[in-house]
Request: fold
Amino acid sequence: MAEGGVRVPSGQLKVSAVSDERVDFLREQAFTALRLKTDKWNRFIGAEENQKALLDFLDHGWGRRLILFTGPGGTLHVGDEQSSSPWRTKLLCVLKKTGGSVSRSHFRSQLWLGEVPAQPMDHAPILIGQVLVSMLANPLNQKGWPRVMGQDMRRQLEHLRSRAVTLQGRAEGRTLLPLPLSVERKDQHQLSSDLCLVDRALLYAIETMVIQWSQQMGSVLQRDSSNLLRQGDHPGPMVELHFWAQQKENLLGIQKQLQNPKVDQVLEILQRINSSYYASFHNIIQKVNQAVVEAEDIDLYLKPLRKHIVAFEERIFTDLEPLFPALLHTLALIWTHSRFYCSPPHIVTLLTEFCNLLIDKAMVYLIPEELFKMELEEGMERVQRAVQVFRAFKRTFQQYRDQLTPTGPYSRPGWSVRPWDFPSYLIFQRIDRMMERLLMIEELFASALDFLKLERVELGGSRGKILSEMVYSMNDEFHDSWRILRESKYDPLDYSKKEFVRDYDRFVEQNQDFDQRLGTVLNLAFQHSPSLESAFKLLQIFGTLLERPRVHQLFSPNYSILLAMFQEEVSICQQILDTHRERLRNGGPVLSKNMPTVAGTLKWSQELRERILTNRSNLNQLTHMPLDSPDAEQVLRTCECILEALDQLDEEVYANWCVGLDELCHAYMDEPLLSLAEESGLYSVNFNPAYTSTLSQITQWHNKLHSTILPVELELVGAEMDEVKSKLKPALKELRWSQEDLWDYIRRFAHC
Reply:
């Protein structure tokens, strides 16, 4: 931008900036002060916005300050009065001595150049103590000043230097105790001189120092690692370790400063003048020494926890449970071995921070913003797993808490073991509230898994259509309510917010209405069930919905009706069995479709047994069925009697079939497998006809083909028939029923 606000094309702007001696001067200063490399300057000056910033500063009067600083990678950046470096880096400051533009010929005399270090607080005390104090407190520079003004100047400079030293310590994370210049500039011999006892300015500086140091040390001694918890934050256990490590280093730094011989001389001066500050100053120094011992002890015993914390942070939430015993064991060892950490406030703080870490891991695992958008089964599993891990942590804590007794495994000779007698709710407040919220969410998921089954319910019977429509109506209403939860924007795990609680209460109220309506539908459908089989099918359709408390309460009177239906079914089965046994005693045949007499009888027995067992199994699967009542026990005993009678009947039929079987088998064991009627050319199984009903199928296909085929057709399959006869030939002469490899031959023949 040229003078007068006329816009200059970017090409001309670049030429102007590159050829400007003032810009070259700034480049040389940047090379010297910031140790800038040529390629970084070329990249910087190649950007149009940087050229414009430099020329605007040089050619116009609205800006009096320009700063140049380096960023990541050594890149050069420019700023003005309204901006500063976002990084801790050295600054090159360019100031105009007067307003207006900078002349192209006299620019060197119109600019002030200055450097600001990356850590200005490191230089502030030196600047004040060695420059400002030397100039302003020098009596030669105070000629003509009133005495009071000179004294006030020295006090103000002392206060400024003290503040600078204090701020420098805060920036570095430690406590610096500034010595007054009047003390620092005197050697030990001068401080031990009796003249110091009458130097009022020195005594004033010493007492001011004592007050300031006492406040600083008192502030450090009052630091508490639980402050963040009291403020409502949720720090993890690593914060506790960092606190004590930093507290130890800070206290050691204070102790080292207090070991300065001049501090001992200050104490001696205070004692000799009977200063009221002596006792308190001496007392706080002793407290610092004690605090150093405490911090070193605590830091030493907390260090083993670092590997446990790292393991916690690296593992996924579901794999944390195996780490609990080792963690609580380490905490118990710290409690029983550390001289200073065995106090309830300390261990409560540490355990609370571990609870915070556990909750943070749970939040990552549960994904609160996606919890209701997951598949129901997945969401339910995550919630239940989180509750399980929380309960495992509380259970492990209680196990190790019970072991911290005078006679427990952590007792040592000559050392009294203090119990963890603090209330556990101090530790588990957040976990308990989180578990309460998770159980509410689990209840919603369980209801959703129940009620979303309604879309698959289809009732039959005379009133099935009407009842099904009632169920579908409930299903639609439930879907609408669940959609509200899925589309909610709040965090359902944030127990401090009430939005979820309002939705939960509305959801529970609706579920209670659904339970009432569902119980009514179930009762009507049961009343119109025509048989025991249809009644069991109805209850299987509703499944876990029967276990909902209100539904169970409404349906429970029907269990006695269901038991009566089952008892009637058992009576029918008993009558069928009695009729069958009577027919057997009278010599009547008992046949089953396409089966011989014995096999048919056994098949009939099996079908009746399965009928009884199926109904009994359906009855036993009903969770709330009162099977311990006298009526239920009686009908179940009747079932057992019928089943025993069927087993006995099967044994009798089989035993009768086996009579003489061994002798008959031995008589035929040396006979060939098959026999051939020469006249008809038909094959037959060479065994007792009473036992060949299942074996005759091997020859039936050949005989049927041989008997029904026409001569013309025989010519077409003659070769295949001859092959079959060739394969059957060994069974006529060579093979016997007693041969061990007989089954291999029959199997190969069957696959041909």
